[in-house]
Design brief:
single chain; 397 residues; alpha/beta; Nucleotidyltransferase, domain 5; 2 domains; globular
Length: 397
């Protein structure tokens, strides 16, 4: 037997595994690296976050990534080069993190690499009936594996689209498995560039879980702040706080058909970006909206569309706890406005029921890799009742 396959088999038989989860989101801020110990699999899964770090991308590299991310046209040469370059780069960052933590790479069973999404194109977005749901991540798993010498599982979203899903959000599978309460409803809200949540009815309920994107989370706010204030993001919601929400502009932004679509749905910065903002304002003939008012209005847009999507699944206004993760958790104005819009819910930090909220998505992919190695997979709520697993396996050599 090929020795690599024998090693893979041995890993699948272990009662627990040490897995590194990687996540780089639509903000392109850097790479989240989560070192996890995962005991068991399936419903018996227990996860312990041993170490976590976010390593910022080099500004020049970030600029190159932006040039091919969420744009309808890009250089094929640049896509090809960055697919390999990002894999090598992520491998390098993993080795640096392990050295910092004093951990030898031989102690790691597997790397779970999400990669960098450069384009997300579900049918609901591309509107081509003869084409499937599609999504594309770069950061080649073979390069990660070869660079680190560690078995790597990557490209998780492709099986989801192949089986009829839209390739997002992926967190729901783990949310349902680990965080469903016996008697209480929960909502797990992640506010990244795009906001999404998982509604979790209790074990005792006959209601169904639902996971969905809601629309922009941080992405439009970041776009505006970067253009008009030359800052990466609105730290502590300072700019939104000093501005005023323009109700006319807010109404125009919310008229986008995406917000009227039924749940579940997905989207991305391919739709919600700086051009989208400018197009919506142009339709109204607005050219002189003060920059701080724009940031405040975009923050309110995120708050209202998140709250309205949550209200669609919480029709009875049950006192429900909303556990928040993602970068938006650190914007107190955004969180305050969501809280005001959902008086029958309580906003809480995801850490109360899990672990570091900034690490949540990286840990999610570590658990998905663990399931690939040790379990039967997940139902993805399409017409098929067949379980599927996510990820492709790359051997180090």
């Amino acid at each position: 037997m090929n020795s690599a396959i024998q090693k893979l088999y041995d890993i699948t038989q272990k009662p627990n595994r040490i897995i590194i989860g990687l996540m780089s989101g639509t903000s392109l801020d850097g790479l989240d690296i989560a070192l996890c110990q995962i005991n068991g699999s399936g419903k018996t899964t227990e996860v312990e976050l041993k170490n976590f770090e976010t390593i910022s991308y080099d500004p020049k590299f970030k600029k190159r990534l932006k040039s091919i991310t969420s744009v309808p046209k890009a250089s094929m040469e640049e896509v090809c080069l960055l697919h390999s370059r990002l894999g090598n780069y992520h491998g390098k960052l993993i080795l640096e993190a392990l050295e910092k933590w004093g951990i030898d790479s031989t102690q790691i069973d597997c790397i779970a690499s999400h990669g960098q999404t450069i384009y997300h194109a579900p049918k609901s977005q591309h509107n081509q009936p003869d084409m499937p749901n599609a999504t594309l991540q770069i950061g080649d798993g073979d390069h990660v594996a070869h660079k680190t010498g560690i078995l790597t599982v990557s490209d998780f979203r492709q099986k989801h689209t192949a089986a009829g899903g839209e390739g997002a959000p992926m967190a729901a599978f783990v949310d349902q498995m680990l965080f469903t309460h016996d008697t209480k409803e929960r909502i797990l809200l992640n506010i990244g560039g795009i906001a999404n949540f998982t509604y979790l009815p209790p074990h005792t309920s006959d209601k169904k879980s639902i996971t969905t994107d809601t629309g922009p989370g941080n992405t439009l706010i970041d776009n505006a702040v970067q253009k008009y204030f030359d800052e990466d993001f609105d730290k502590d919601g300072r700019i939104a706080k000093q501005g005023s929400v323009d109700p006319t502009v807010l109404k125009a932004l919310k008229s986008d058909p995406y917000f009227q679509k039924s749940l579940p749905k997905t989207t991305g910065p391919e739709i919600f970006n700086l051009n989208w903002i400018e197009k919506q304002l142009s339709k109204m003939g607005i050219t002189d909206l003060p920059s701080d008012n724009l940031v405040a209005t975009l923050t309110q847009l995120s708050a209202e569309t998140i709250a309205e999507a949550i209200q669609k699944v919480n029709l009875q206004n049950i006192q429900t706890a909303i556990y928040v993760s993602g970068g938006g958790l650190h914007n107190p104005i955004l969180i305050e406005w969501i809280d005001e819009l959902l008086p029958n819910c309580t906003i809480r930090n995801f850490e109360e029921i899990g672990f570091d909220p900034d690490a949540k998505e990286a840990v999610i992919f570590a658990i998905l890799a663990n399931e690939m190695l040790a379990e039967e997979g997940f139902l993805i709520n399409t017409d098929s009742e067949k379980k599927v697993n996510f990820g492709k396996i790359s051997f180090p050599d």
